[in-house]
Amino acid sequence: MNTETMNPAREEKEHPKKKGVRWPVWSTLGLLLVLLPFILEKGVSSYYLFLTVKVLIWVLFATSFNLVLGYGGMMSLGHAAFFGIGAYTCALLLVKASCPPVLAMLAGPLAAAIAGMIAAFFSVRVQGAFYFATITIAFCQLAYTAAFKWRSLTFGDDGVQGIPVPAFISTEASYINLYFFALAVTVLCLYVVWRIVKSPYGLLLRALKEDPVRATFIGMKGQQYRFIAFVTSAFFAGIAGVLYAFLETSVAPDILSWTFSGEVVLMSVLGGMNLFLGPAVGAAIMILLSSFVTSYMKYWLFTMGTILILIVLFCPKGVGGLVLDKYRAWTKGE
Amino acid sequence: MTAFDSLLFAQFVSGLSRAMILFIMASGLTLVFGVARVINFAHGSFYMVGAYLAYTSTFLLAGPFGFWAAFLIVPILTSILGGVVEVALLRRIYEKEHLLQMLLTFGLVFVFSDAVRMIWGVDLRMVSLPSYMAGSVNLLGHQFPAYHLFIISLGGAIAIVMWLMLNRTKFGKLIRGAAEHREMVGLLGYPANRLFTIVFMMATFLGGLAGAAIAPAVRISLGMDTEIIAECFTVAIIGGLGNVWGALLGALIAGMMYSFGILVLPNYAMAFIFILGGIIIVVRPNGLLGKSSQIKV
Amino acid sequence: MALLEIKGLRKSFGGVKAVAGVDLQVTRGQIHGIIGPNGAGKSTLFNLISGYYRCDEGSIFFKDKEITRYRPQTLVKMGMGRSFQVTKIFPRLTVFENVQAAVLFSKGYGLNLFSDARRLVVDPAEEILSMVRLSGRAHELSGVLAAGDRKRLELGITLASNPDLLLLDEPTCGMSPLETNETIDLIRKISMEKALTVLFTEHKMDMVFGIAAYITVMNFGAVIAAGTPAEIKANDRVQKVYFGEGHVA
């Protein structure tokens, strides 16, 4: 067989170990995800189901954020703005305007995407991390200040309380319905992001990150690619925000804060920003860590910052990257 | 002199004072970026630490002595802290990709924020001024808070010292050269490491100084680091990255825009400088004093 | 008929006149070398031609169109490809993906967000890889390639955009004599097979004489001689610039 014409896609499938691992893993995972809520709520406590939904939301947020950070190579420090705008838009429409739930749920991500377009318009223009960071920080700061000060619109630092969760996902009796809804939404969105990452656009976005000058000289207009990545991730951040609003039934300005933006950055880096599922892993680790290690909660920021610094210095590929390297070494060893 | 004239003059003075603080901050930030290409998100943290240290200084050393001691001790302390950070952490990541460098300084923000909380707690702190500073001063027929004038003089002094350093010393030449051509630093046989450390320490010195200077004028709180950072960065961009005089110009514009802005649209005055920043990025990305881009990419 | 024509091009950086009035013509199908000592302005000239820098004065014509103010992306679409003295590739993509990305873009898949990239343009990409003799390493990360392989990969990336004119900046920079000869053969072969025009810069004399049909000599940002290899060899001024007052056979 002529190895020079081997199709890369074909090569991947024919690797014996990988083939064997696929189906059983996915179906077990699927089964687990379906049974999980019942096990948690009936068997353990509904707090853990609450936590699981929280993990799902952050998985969505972090994975779509990574489109900008890991794939796009852009250090966006204000992504909380889009999460928050999505959450606030949905919440305010429901609470103030008695908007039909479906419309409110769509309005959230749309508002977030529009905000993303405004921020992206300025930030993708110039090649330069300094500019990008400044704009994203400033944008988030403005959103935070607006939420705080514009009491007539946003209720200021009291936040929007008592968000009416639609009946089919009502959390009054149990979190199970919300869980399945969040699961479906997250899986669907992750699939869409996966398709984008594996598309020609995704490859070219990665190329742009690797060497912007070389990308220019194959004809690419970098701005377009970065713009699309940014707006797309803002859209999905908005969806995550809407789910958050339903989970917590209230939203407050802290979800637009620098700290909040920092958490999603940390999740992506911790899990591995060069892997699709890296941020998801990071999200799960961080949520569970912050919930269970309550004695450190007092100094959560300190912990977060230290973890970030340690990862940057000693393990830049993140936990996911480390695991993947070990897995690859294992498969090669056979 | 009408009341309106008085008001305008008062806003001018307070705007100038605000501008000086921003200049002290932004100049340090832009220097570090210009020389070492490091984006120090934790710059605001050194500012905050400076303010809290000034509080402690006045707390421990009572009276006016404590106040003046703060101005000497605090920046030295933040400078040393900066040196430690640079040597222990930043040095390891200069060779690595840009993104990782930013993540590191970003992580530092959180570490410092909680460290400050651990040490000083969440309560607001105040620094009181010695009596001759606390009152007003009569200038050109108007009354001004004396402290504003003090800050303005401080800023002016820093500007002069910087000018002298950049234009009259060999070290200053090195900095200017490094900002233009980074490779030059190594080629001249000067150890780049030491240069970067010194510049970083200078920047954190300035950050601490700004923090100590602002301490008596504001309520010292935990949000100080993030509040100042967006504005600082924007000022640096407006002026032109790596350009200290650009920082001065940008700071002056920012200070004036805010102090006159609050007369017109008080709730939105904060945003004006960001709007200007956005315009500059679109129209003249290299900043007001930066050279226009050679590259058409 | 001139594929590329440059008239009176000037570019200064502060006080330094990097390009001080250059006239140049490249005929279609020609392999044209630009030689000159370091600092002669060769790379700056390339940056100006390929749209990366803005010139101070002068005009550039490509395919009879004035392209002086055109951006690099437009020029790539028009059929100008370029390599860099310090190789530019996409290090964390595989060798195959490096070329595939360029092919995908040139075939218009750039903003396609939903097809599976792995199945697209596989054959054209593989064809290019075999042309630059990198097929065997298709699935390695390109970042680990040695210098010579990187140059060939970059050549492959450049070819993927279907250029008519190739601008190669010191294509044999840092190569051993053996690699240099291999690269010369490759360039000659590819330019024949694909009917390409090649404009390259070099300061290895023997490399240039081995492949160029026409040579332009630069020094201090200006053209000091232009002609066939024989004419250049006989040119006293060139000899002085390169070899001092002595003569080389």
Element string of chain A (H = helix, E = strand): HHHHHHHHHHHHHHH
Describe the largest sheet of chain B.
Answer: 2 strands, antiparallel
- Any idea what the shape of chain B is? globular
What's the pLDDT, averaged over the residues of chain B? Answer: 86
Spans where pLDDT lies below 50 across 5 or more residues of chain A: 1-19
Strand portion of chain A: under 5%
Helical element count of chain B? 12
Count of the domains of chain B = 1
N-to-C span of chain A: 23 Å
Helix content of chain B: over 70%
Largest sheet of chain A: none
Oligomeric state of this protein: heterotrimer
Query: What gyration radius of chain B follows from the Cα positions, in whole Å?
Result: 19 Å
Which two chains have the most extensive interface, and how many residues on each? A-B, 45 and 43 residues
Order of helical and strand elements of chain B: HHHHHEEHHHHHHH
- Total number of strands of chain A: 0
What is the β-strand count of chain B? 2
Would you give an account of this structure?
The complex is a heterotrimer of chains A (334), B (297) and C (249). Chain A has 334 residues and is mainly α. Chain A has 15 helices and no strands. Chain B has twelve helices and two strands, in the order H-H-H-H-H-E-E-H-H-H-H-H-H-H. Chain B has helices at 3-36, 43-60, 63-93, 98-120, 131-134, 146-168, 170-180, 182-187, 192-214, 224-239, 244-264, 269-283; strands at 136-139, 142-145. The longest helix of chain B has 34 residues, at 3-36. Chain B is globular, with a radius of gyration of 19 Å. Chain C has helices at residues 42-49, 72-78, 95-106, 122-131, 147-160, 177-193, 205-211, 229-234, 236-243; strands at residues 2-13, 16-27, 31-35, 57-62, 65-66, 80-83, 165-169, 197-202, 214-219, 222-227. In chain C, the strands form two sheets. Chain C has a six-stranded mixed beta sheet, with helices on both faces. In chain C, strands 2-1-4-5 form a four-stranded antiparallel beta sheet, covered by helices on one side. In chain C, helix 3 packs parallel to helix 5 (147-160). The longest helix of chain C is centred in the C-terminal third of the chain and has 17 residues, at 177-193. Chain C is globular and about 55 Å long. The relative contact order of chain C is 0.18. Chains in contact: A-B, A-C, B-C. Chains A and B meet through helix 6, helix 10, helix 12 and helix 14 of A and helix 3, helix 4, helix 10 and helix 12 of B.
